Each structure stands twice: as structure tokens, then as C-alpha cells.
Automatic annotation (TrEMBL):
Family: Belongs to the BioY family.
Major subcellular location class: membrane
InterPro entries assigned to the protein according to its UniProt record, in alphabetical order: BioY
Native source species: Salinicoccus sediminis
Topology versus the membrane: Multi-pass membrane protein
Name this polypeptide is given: Biotin transporter
GO cellular component: plasma membrane
Subcellular location: Cell membrane
Gene3D superfamilies (alphabetical): 1.10.1760.20
Domain of life the protein comes from: Bacteria
Keywords for the protein's UniProt record, in alphabetical order: Cell membrane, Membrane, Transmembrane, Transmembrane helix, Transport
């Protein structure tokens, strides 16, 4: 891996951190701009570097830098919403599979939607686990779904399609890393 690849991964880790700071608290899981940054990392960097950038983001946050939506540090592992951060890694990889000149916008957006589903499933399952096993506040799967996924589906679907369009436009215009 070349130095420039590491720089690109670090740049997107920083963009994800900025996206986390733009947040609207509406419940236990705030609305942030992390998802479009994660998807864009995959769309522009490809699967491996996209996943690396999200891994760097997560590790930087876990060592104590407040890059998550309102926090940082190892204690973030106990946050009910940390499962979404974990889901960013495979999501960026999957979004990266939809990148490149050979993919249509429909395919790129489709990979983005699969990536979004991975984020949701990871976040939902982690939320249920932390609430039930760590915090001790029993919550069922249906209730957790209503708290962590349903309020975001329309917004995230629109953002995923727009991010796919933006990523494809940047890619076609050559505004992508020379990887």
C-alpha cells in the first residue's frame, strides 16, 4: 500500500468525523452525516481503502479523540448506537464494490442501499444487545427497530441515492484518487 493510499484513507476518516459533528438529536440515535461520508469513501476509494478509512475513524474514536457523534473513547463501546459505527466498515467495503467506471448509477446506488442495510442491521442488533445486556433496559426487536431505523429510512435512502450520484459524477470527472 502506497503512502498516498494511507493519506486518502486518513482524509476520508476525517470527513466521516466531520459528518459525525453535524448532528440533529432526535432520540437515542442522532441524525448525522456520517452515512454519506462512509458511502462516499467506498464509492471513491474502492472496497479496501473505503473499509480502511472507516476502520481508522473507529480506532481514532476509540483511543479518545471525540470524533463520534458527541463522544470518543473506549467507553463508546457501551453506547447503544456504537453498532452503527461498527457497521460502517463492511458498509464502506460494500459501497466500494459498486464503484468505478464500469458500474451504472443504478448498480452503484444498489450497492449503496446494501451498504445502508448492513449499517442498519449492525446498529439494530448492537442496540438491542447493549440495551438488554449492558444497560438493563429491556427492549424488543420491534421497539428497537422503531427507535433506531424507521426514523431514518427515508432520509438515508434519499441520501444514499444522492451520494451515489455525487460519487459517480466525481468519478467520471476524474476527481478521484489515482489508486
Amino acid at each position: 500500500m502506497k503512502t498516498k493510499h494511507l493519506i486518502y484513507a486518513a482524509l476520508f476518516a476525517a470527513l466521516i468525523a466531520v459528518g459525525a459533528q453535524i448532528r440533529i438529536p432526535i432520540g437515542p440515535v442522532p441524525v448525522t452525516f456520517q452515512v454519506p461520508m462512509v458511502l462516499l469513501a467506498g464509492f471513491l476509494l474502492g472496497p479496501k481503502l473505503g473499509a480502511l478509512s472507516t476502520t481508522v475513524y473507529m480506532l481514532v474514536g476509540l483511543v479518545g479523540v471525540p470524533v463520534f457523534a458527541g463522544s470518543g473513547g473506549i467507553g463508546s463501546l457501551m453506547s447503544p448506537s456504537f453498532g452503527f459505527v461498527i457497521g460502517f466498515i463492511p458498509a464502506a467495503f460494500i459501497a466500494g464494490l459498486g464503484a468505478g467506471d464500469g458500474r451504472s448509477l443504478l448498480k452503484t446506488a444498489g450497492f449503496g442501499m446494501i451498504a445502508l442495510l448492513v449499517i442498519y442491521v449492525s446498529g439494530l442488533l448492537y442496540f438491542v444487545f447493549i440495551m438488554n445486556q449492558v444497560i438493563g433496559t429491556p427492549v424488543g426487536l420491534a421497539e428497537a427497530l422503531m427507535l433506531t431505523v424507521v426514523p431514518f429510512v427515508i432520509k438515508d435512502t434519499i441520501i444514499t441515492v444522492l451520494t451515489a450520484m455525487f460519487g459517480k459524477t466525481l468519478y467520471r470527472r476524474g476527481l478521484r484518487p489515482a489508486i
